[in-house]
Amino acid sequence: MWFPHYRLNKSMTYFARYLPILDWGRRYDRSAFSNDMIAAVIVTIMLIPQSLAYALLAGLPPEAGIYASIAPIVLYAIFGTSKALAVGPVAVVSLLTASAIGQVAETGTAGYAVAALTLAGLSGAFLVLLGVLRLGFLANFLSHPVIAGFITASGILIATSQLKHILGISAHGHTLPEMLGSIGAHLDQINLVTVVIGLSATGFLFWVRGSLKPLLKRLGMGPLMTDLLAKAGPVAAVASTTMAVWIFDLHGVGVKIVGDVPQSLPPFTIPGLSPDLIKTLLVPAILISVIGFVESISVAQTLAAKKRQRIDPDQELIGLGAANLGAAFTGGFPVTGGFSRSVVNFDAGSETPAAGIFTAIGLTVAALALTPLVYYLPNATLAATIIVAVLSLVDFSILRKTWGYARADFIAVAATIALTLIMGVEVGVASGVGISILLHLYKTSRPHVAEVGLVSGTQHFRNVKRHAVETNPNILTLRVDESLYFVNARFLEDLVHSRVTAGCDIKDVVLMFSAVNEVDFSALESLEAINLRLIDMGVGLHLSEVKGPVMDRLKKSHLIGDINGKVFLSQYDAWVSLTR
Amino acid sequence: MWFPHYRLNKSMTYFARYLPILDWGRRYDRSAFSNDMIAAVIVTIMLIPQSLAYALLAGLPPEAGIYASIAPIVLYAIFGTSKALAVGPVAVVSLLTASAIGQVAETGTAGYAVAALTLAGLSGAFLVLLGVLRLGFLANFLSHPVIAGFITASGILIATSQLKHILGISAHGHTLPEMLGSIGAHLDQINLVTVVIGLSATGFLFWVRGSLKPLLKRLGMGPLMTDLLAKAGPVAAVASTTMAVWIFDLHGVGVKIVGDVPQSLPPFTIPGLSPDLIKTLLVPAILISVIGFVESISVAQTLAAKKRQRIDPDQELIGLGAANLGAAFTGGFPVTGGFSRSVVNFDAGSETPAAGIFTAIGLTVAALALTPLVYYLPNATLAATIIVAVLSLVDFSILRKTWGYARADFIAVAATIALTLIMGVEVGVASGVGISILLHLYKTSRPHVAEVGLVSGTQHFRNVKRHAVETNPNILTLRVDESLYFVNARFLEDLVHSRVTAGCDIKDVVLMFSAVNEVDFSALESLEAINLRLIDMGVGLHLSEVKGPVMDRLKKSHLIGDINGKVFLSQYDAWVSLTR
């Protein structure tokens, strides 16, 4: 069959854009294979307790955590662009999942599990849609301080939500006051043996995280071994507390355990598609998608920068969307690229997304063969691993940093933290985004406008209030320090009016547009109004330093033809021409 | 009693700020009084049919329209700052009222009237709150094109809503498809006599508006008389059709008439305060407040500009809020400053808000004595006055103008018009605002960044792609044409990275900040990341033309200390220093 070469090539490129695996897969070799295998073994061991724990956090049966780590990881390996990202259940997304599904079903019911599938499916569909429409930039609407505040508050919420497992009581709630109130009301149920297990595990894990590495180093152990032992901490905690429960039959004295976990491949599941369920879960799904995407892309870009690799945000949306759709059809719940698992994967030396595929194989083996081993694993131990992991996310320094730098950023962070803790994760993050945008619009609605004069001996103009500059009483030169658009259009109109009526000798007004990056239709109308008013008063209106894109646009309007003055390339030209 | 003069003076100023009447009231004289009286008589005559008509549009009994014109006009005269604004029921706000109350009660029921009072009360309270908090600038979030599109679409909706009165049928609906569908389904009810009255009145009023003035002028009549006769058009239509119905007993053949209107002072009423009602009406009340405020302030500022008077937007909020609270307690419904009535007031020569008080007195007399005269007034005539008034608001030219100037503005207008017609007024205007803001944020998320070079023989730098300029292969100068904030922080990071890695000879990067009006915390972190990356690559990072306010802020951070280069006052300084 005749097939023109350029066409083949073009269609390959087309597919490779949506299937990055075609690119790295062709160049896969033995060295990459062995590095990926080693990384996969390490990550698999770490992922087993983590997956069980996050399922617990999301309010789902433990096996859901393992299932949610298998298909998603493979699908991300096919569609994603990061070489190091490990996709699966993560703390913040699991918390959001619990909060969203808690509105539609009771924990432990069949409806709850189905709602989790639906949430993953909606989230996956939404992410793929954003990716196909190339809307990855929308994630930028979450500012760094808002994300930092949200993560800190989420960490506190997550840690608090696990206290009930450490205490061995039942409690509920999705906000800090609800949780604390509910814990207080159930304090009489405290199981002391559970408390002992929970506190020992928590203490042990904090010790491993903080003091073990320095100790091993002092004992002369090599860095690789040190690292490996430190990472095995959660596994050791799981193994030792499981053994303790089994040997001393602590389940008999009321210690809650993981219990039966089915030995099975990930099942084929179908998300609930009732319009009511979809309507209720749509907004939470969008929120989970955006937050998951922001977390994931931050991790992916941080790791890619270290190896000078590129991440394509729009393709990442497709990769994460595919992973969530995978979770929806294989008994999982919403997933994203996690920080801790990705860092482990990276540190363990994974070279390609194949490491993810090998991890999935390892987890499949675990799901089929190893689940009986966690029968006696106490929930308190899983809670301890979550608490230790999330408390490392809690960092209030962002409050101090933003307070020192810019009050608007501080307000956004403080509101995000407070509202997340008091009103819950959805309200918290939505308010953070809304407040950031409103504060930005507010700032641009009252822009800084400086009267400028010539810096002697140069052709440069600066603010008369800050620099010693030459001015001329007949010329008012205003440098407008903001794009002109509907939010501040009327502001400029009022300002020019009040400045011109205040100074009686003014014969020419020059608007210096060096900082005006846009003039929208509302602002155009304001400029026309200013021009008409100045014509009435016999005052000239001139523009200077209008940028190319702004000038292109103004030329389409009547303003440039009607203006009662000139448009000067530079402010210096205007000055020379008007003072002559 | 001893009373220090300065204190008296200070407290007078304080009161005068919230009570502008104290200011103009002290200077009131005989000349102003006679001018105000003449204006009041003209406005009163015009307001009677208009008030009845807008009550009909809002779905309320006719007297509500008169009541809504009495107390509000007096309260605005006390608290408002415009000398010419006439406050009362207006077309768009009446339509919004019908749409909002239609959700909670059936037209004609007691619940409907109470809901109208509650809506006016909530709107009044909200406006006063905004005024006290000095948040008048929020109205700027409605861009000119969005307002123009909304007014046009509302005009079409209002005219369509009146078709049922012209046809003599019953129909309902709050969107164009609903209304047209409902009219189509009730076409069998058409009353031919009503149609004749309705079409004659409409035709007559269009003729008065379009052709009467030129005709009278050709007949040699003076401009004042011409104007007066043209304005008497609606009164003539009301009088003649009322007479026709009375003489020929057309009510007997099915022509719907205004009927009994109580002869009474405005009653004292109490708005409904049930939490459910308030919850349902809160969002519509906010919307009505904002739209009413925008309409009112536009009219007030247009008229004030003609006489070089000042309008205080925050005090206007208080004036309109007081007017609406007044409507809520005197049997009215939401009101605002109307365009047509204010222009009549202005043209008739009103000098102070006292003209409004005299108008209120005139309307009170009408409410007490003249209501029996409108017993036989056909609804079709009122509908005709509304249709002719609102069709003058319909103006699609904004679509053509924005299309030619800026696509983003066009999209906002087109979406506002389409969504208002198809989904209703609330969705339409909310979408218009939302879309404007999102499009603005989208534009700033991918800012224009120009590589600039020196314009020979000057100290001025322009885009290398648009001008013949001097450049140096070792220096990359980027002029960032946008404030740097969270929405575009990562964009700059990626851009600098890709530009520096693309050109291998680059030794220095200069970011020219002449158009950067803000650097928020997210952008600061990006600049720090850019700096660290350039240090790694052995490339210098310099800033030039940083504005005062931006520099003040940057000095609070580590960036200026850590930067791998210098901060230059002007780009020319940077060029001279780096090329030496």
UniProtKB/TrEMBL annotation, chains A, B:
The keyword Plastid does not apply. It is a multi-pass membrane protein. Residues 465-580 form the STAS domain. GO terms for biological process: transmembrane transport. The keyword Ribonucleoprotein does not apply. CDD domains: STAS_SulP_like_sulfate_transporter. It comes from the Bacteria. InterPro entries: SLC26A/SulP_dom, SLC26A/SulP_fam, STAS_dom, STAS_dom_sf. It is found in: Membrane. Keywords: Membrane, Transmembrane, Transmembrane helix. The chain crosses the membrane at residues 37-58, 111-133, 145-169, 189-208, 228-248, 281-305, 317-335, 355-375, 411-439. This is Putative sulfate transporterc/MT1781. It comes from Nereida ignava.
